[in-house]
Each structure stands twice: as structure tokens, then as C-alpha cells.
Amino acid sequence: MTVPRFVAAKQQGRKLSVLTAYDFLWAALLDAAGTDAILVGDSLGMVVQGKATTLPVTLDEMIYHAEMVVRAVRQALVIVDMPFLTFHVSPQQALENAGTILKKTGAGAVKLEGGVNQATTIRTLTDADIPVMAHVGLKPQSVLKLGGYKIQRDAERLMADARAAEEAGAFGIVLECIPRGIAAQITAAVGIPTIGIGAGPDCDGQVLVTQDLLGLTGDGAPKFVKQFANLGQQASTAVRQFVAEVQGGRYPDEVHSHV
Ligand code: KIV
Prior knowledge:
The chain has eleven helices and eight strands.
């Protein structure tokens, strides 16, 4: 997958699948299963590091995880999130950090949260031939200002953000947690793919946190998450069985021992 093919999928009416990965093992699995793009999301701060928000994630941490992902991927487009405060200070700062991400990881694109407010920065990156995916709607890096992870319903503002991102040269836009009707309007209004998460079925593609769709993050997932498997339960059962068999002296048995 390349950026031009990703964009062309919209004109071809082919829906795009995007999932998060933070390491070699999961990236290899997602890639082999045919995922169009793999996002090294700053959600790793919560999913991998167990932090309350994505705000503490650093550029070095993103690069560390993205390197592992890129090493595993054969076909998918790898997109790396720019963490909080790595693009807010100035377009120049964003350019240096986005360039560093691409140089050090071999990823194909970066993503940053913002629309109208980051248009100059998106333009600066795309003028330097750095492919940028924008992210509008619920922006997790704005959680302190928003006062929580809330559905965003200001249709005018959301449309303005999406249009600004496209005009600034973004090749795609994540639409997070917005009503499906607004997502449909934005998708019809812009020429670049919209990738929804909690934005309904009319987007050009969908993204989920892999651990959510596999049922690894437990109960309390947001309404839009469909658990396609319950790996958490399966893993827990397997580990309990291992513990019981070790304690009971049943593992390792003859079959699993060298003679
Ligand atoms: O950080 C992330 O994983 C994301 C997706 C959920 C869109 O931004």
C-alpha cells in the first residue's frame, strides 16, 4: 500500500481497513491478514504503557515502537502518530520531528491531531513531501480541554476542520467519535479518504485499536467497538491452566520432556 493507492481507494469505492500495532508480532499478523494501513498510534500510552491519557507519550517512544512495526510489515502503509507537543510549538518543530520519524523508522506517513488549528503545520509537512493524515472530531490529545472523551457534535466546526486538512494537503482524515450523519456529510464533501472510529458506516474506511477488537482490553469499551474475538478470556483461561498444571505437577509431562 502506498499513499497514492490509499487515496485512490476512495475513487474506486474500496473501503479501507486500518488497525493499530505497536510491535513486531502484531504488525506481522495484521499485515499478513490484509490490513490496508497500520497505525502506530499514540494510544500506545494507554494500551501498552497503562497511562491515563496519551499526553505523556514521547517522540522517542513512538520511534521505538514504529521501528518494530515497520520491520514486520510487507504490504501495509505504516502511519505513525505525532505525540503531544511534538508539532504544537511551530511548523518548523513539526517538520523536524515528522522528518525524524520517517528517517528513523522507514514508515510511510505521519498522523497528527488537528484541522483548522494545524492547517499551517500540515501544509509545511506536505510541502516537504511528508504524507500527513489529519485527525478531527474527538482528539485524545485535547482531553484536558474537552473534559473527557466525548462525542463531538459541532457539524460546522467538524466540516471546517476536514476541509482545512484537505486544503492543506493531508492525504486522509481520521474522524473520531462524531455522529454518523456528520461523518457522511464530510465524507461526501472531501476528496480524500475519511477513516472513521466511532463515526458510523459511511466513512471511506474504519480504524480500531487492535486490542479492543480482539477483546483484550476488557469491559467498558466504547459503544462503537465491536469485539470480533474474546482473546482476553482465552488467554486468561490458558494461563490459569498453565499455573494449575505446574502447581499440580502435570506440566511438563512425558510428551513435553527431552529424553
Ligand atoms: O492513537 C490512536 O490509536 C489513534 C486511533 C485510535 C485513531 O489515534
